[in-house]
Design brief:
alpha/beta; Fumarate Reductase Iron-sulfur Protein, Chain B, domain 2; FAD/NAD(P)-binding domain; 3 domains; five-stranded parallel sheet; binds flavin-adenine dinucleotide; binds iron/sulfur cluster
Length: about 475
C-alpha cells in the first residue's frame, strides 16, 4: 500500500480544470471539468490513510473515504464506487455541491499540515460519474413485497434517499410533490452551473424505473390532508423542506422589480429545462440588461448573483450585513462569483429602495460594523452613522433565508408537534414525530441546511420506518389508492 499512497509530499493538490470566467459566464453548464482517470488516481494517492480519519468523522454520512481513495489510487475504480455508494444515495451530487471546505476536506489531516487537502469531493464525483458512464450503477430492484405502503411528502434529497431504501426493502412507495418535477431544491433551486439537471434526473428516473410511484403536482394541504395520507399508507414521511422566505423590511420593498430569490432561481432553472416561463420572458424574473442588487450572504445569494451574471446583467452587487469571514455561504462560491465579475459590498445593508410602486430604480445602503457578540457568541452588525451609499438597481433579489411553512395550519394537522421555529419535532433516535407512523427528515426538521444532511436524514428515516413497519406486520395492509 505504502508506495501507492502518502504522496502528498511529492504530488501537489490539483482540482479538476475550472473553465475561465469569460467562458463560463456565457452559459449555465458546470464550471469544473471531470477528473481524467489518471488525475483521480494520482490525487487519491496523496491520502496518508490516517488511522483516525478526520475527513470521515466530519462527513455527515461517515463515508469510508480513506478506503475508497486507496482503491482509486490502486485503479480499483468499480470497487471504490461500490464502497462510496454504500453510504451515500447521491455521491455525484455531494461531490459537486457539498461545502467540502467546511466538512471532509476542511478537516483532512494533510490540509491541516499545510500540504493542501486531498480533493475528496472531486474523487467522489469522479467515481459516480464513471459508474454511470460504465453502467456500474445497478437498477433499483425492489425486495420481496411486504404488502405495506409508505407515503413520502416531498421529492427532495431527503424524500428521494428514503424512497430508494424503502423500495429496496419491498415496500410500496408513493412520493408526493407539489412541483411537476422531482428533485426539490436540486432541480429548481440550485443552478445548473453547480449541478447540471441531468445528474438529478437520472437519479429520479432510476427510482421510477424501480417502482417508486411519483405523484407530481400534488400539494398536501390542497389535494389532501396529512390525515388523508395516514389513512392510505402504513407510514408517512414528511420531507417538505423549508420555503417561507424571510422578507426584506425597508421602505420601497414592495416595488415591482423586488423579487424573492427562489422565484428568480426557479424561473431560470425552468427556462434551462426548456419550459416557457412568462415572468422570465417578460423580464420580471430576468436580469438581462439590468443593474442587479442581491441582498444576503448565503448559498442562495451566491446562486442569484452568478445567475444574474449569466443572464447578461449590466452590473451585479451583493449586499451582506456582516463581513466575508462571517458569511454563511461557501467561500469557494464567493471566489467563483468574484472571478465572474460580482461586486461584494461586505458590512452593508439596504436602508431603502428608490423608485415607485411600478419600478425599483436603486438601493440606498448603510455601512455596518460588527459590534458586541450576541447570546450565540456571534457579533451583531450595527449601523454606522452617515455611512449611506447608493447603488442603481432595476432588479433587487431578496435572498435572506427560509423558514418552515406553517404545516399545522396548511395541512389541517393541529396535533403535529413543531418547535418554536416551526420545524417539525422528530425523535432523534427514530425520526418519528409525535404522530404514530409519521416520520420527518431533512430541512423541515433541521431548518435550512445542506443536501448531505438531507440525504443522511432520509436514509436514517428509511431505516427507522422499516423497523416500524416490521413491528406492524400482521396489521391490515394499506395500498395507496387514488
Ligand atoms: P427540499 O430539497 O426543499 O425538497 C422538498 C420538496 O418538498 C420540494 O420538492 C417541494 O416541492 C416539496 N413540497 C413542499 N411542500 C409540499 C407540500 N405541501 N406538498 C407536496 N410537496 C411539497 N445545499 C448544499 O449542500 N450545497 C449547496 O450548494 C446548496 N445550495 C443551495 C442553493 C439554494 C438556492 C438553496 C435554496 C439551497 C441550497 N442548499 C445547498 C440547501 C439544500 O438544497 C437543502 O438543504 C436540501 O435540498 C434540503 O432537502 P430536503 O429534501 O429536506 O428539501
Ligand atoms: Fe465530503 Fe460531502 Fe462527500 Fe461527505 S458527502 S465525503 S462531506 S463531499
Ligand atoms: Fe486521507 Fe485526509 Fe482523510 Fe487522512 S484526513 S484519511 S489524509 S483524506
Amino acid at each position: 500500500m505504502a508506495e501507492r499512497m502518502l504522496k502528498f509530499t511529492t504530488v501537489a493538490r490539483k482540482t479538476p480544470e475550472k473553465r475561465a470566467a469569460e467562458a463560463r459566464n456565457g452559459d449555465f453548464h458546470e464550471i469544473y471539468a471531470d477528473f481524467i482517470d489518471a488525475k483521480a488516481t494520482e490525487q487519491s494517492s496523496r491520502c496518508s490513510q490516517c488511522g483516525v480519519p478526520f475527513c470521515q468523522t466530519h462527513c455527515p454520512l461517515q463515508n469510508n473515504i480513506p478506503d475508497w481513495l486507496r482503491m482509486t489510487a490502486e485503479g480499483r475504480i468499480q470497487e471504490a464506487y461500490e464502497l462510496s455508494q454504500a453510504t451515500n444515495s447521491m455521491p455525484e451530487v455531494c461531490g459537486r455541491i457539498c461545502p467540502q471546505d467546511r466538512l471532509c476536506e476542511g478537516n483532512c489531516v494533510i490540509e491541516k499540515s499545510g500540504h493542501g487537502t486531498v480533493t475528496i469531493g472531486s474523487v467522489e464525483r469522479y467515481l459516480s460519474d464513471k459508474a454511470w458512464e460504465m453502467g456500474w450503477v445497478k437498477p433499483l430492484v425492489a425486495g420481496p413485497a411486504t404488502g405495506q405502503s409508505v407515503g413520502i411528502i416531498g421529492a427532495g434529497p431527503a424524500g428521494l434517499s428514503a424512497a430508494e431504501l424503502l423500495r429496496e426493502r419491498g415496500h410500496e412507495v408513493v412520493v408526493y410533490d407539489r412541483h411537476d418535477r422531482a428533485g426539490g431544491l436540486l432541480i429548481y433551486g440550485i443552478p445548473g452551473f453547480k449541478l447540471e439537471k441531468d445528474v438529478v434526473e437520472r437519479r429520479t428516473s432510476r427510482l421510477a424505473d424501480g417502482g417508486v410511484e411519483f405523484r407530481m403536482n400534488f400539494e398536501v394541504g390542497r389535494d389532501a390532508t396529512l390525515e388523508d395520507l395516514r389513512g392510505k399508507h402504513n407510514a408517512v414521511l414528511i420531507a417538505v423542506g423549508v420555503y417561507a422566505a424571510r422578507d426584506l423590511i425597508a421602505p420601497g420593498a414592495g416595488s415591482q422589480g423586488v423579487v424573492p430569490a427562489l422565484d428568480y432561481l426557479t424561473a431560470s432553472n425552468r427556462t434551462g429545462l426548456g419550459d416557457v416561463v412568462p415572468e422570465y420572458e417578460n423580464g420580471t424574473l430576468n436580469a438581462s440588461g439590468k443593474d442587479v442588487v442581491v441582498v444576503g450572504g448565503g448559498d442562495t445569494a451566491m446562486d442569484c448573483v452568478r445567475t444574474a451574471i449569466r443572464q447578461g446583467a449590466t452590473s451585479v452587487t451583493c449586499l451582506y450585513r456582516r463581513d466575508k469571514a462571517n458569511m454563511p455561504g461557501s467561500l469557494r462560491e464567493v471566489a467563483n462569483a468574484e472571478e465572474e465579475g460580482v461586486t461584494f459590498e461586505w458590512l452593508a445593508a439596504p436602508r431603502a429602495l428608490s423608485g415607485d410602486a411600478d419600478a425599483v430604480t436603486g438601493v440606498r445602503a448603510i455601512r455596518m460594523r460588527l459590534g458586541a457578540p450576541d447570546a450565540s457568541g456571534r457579533q451583531s452588525p450595527e449601523e454606522i452613522d452617515g455611512g449611506d451609499f447608493d447603488r442603481p438597481a432595476q432588479l433587487v433579489v431578496k435572498a435572506l433565508g427560509f423558514e418552515p411553512e406553517n404545516l399545522q395550519e396548511a395541512w389541517s394537522a393541529p396535533d403535529l408537534k413543531t418547535t418554536r421555529w416551526g420545524t417539525v419535532k422528530a425523535d432523534v433516535r427514530n425520526q418519528m414525530t409525535n404522530l404514530d407512523g409519521v416520520f420527518a427528515a431533512g430541512d423541515i426538521v433541521r431548518g435550512a441546511s445542506l443536501v448531505v444532511w438531507a440525504i443522511k436524514d432520509g436514509r436514517d428515516a428509511a431505516d427507522a420506518m422499516h423497523r416500524y413497519l416490521k413491528s406492524k406486520v400482521g396489521a391490515p395492509a394499506l395500498i395507496a389508492a387514488e
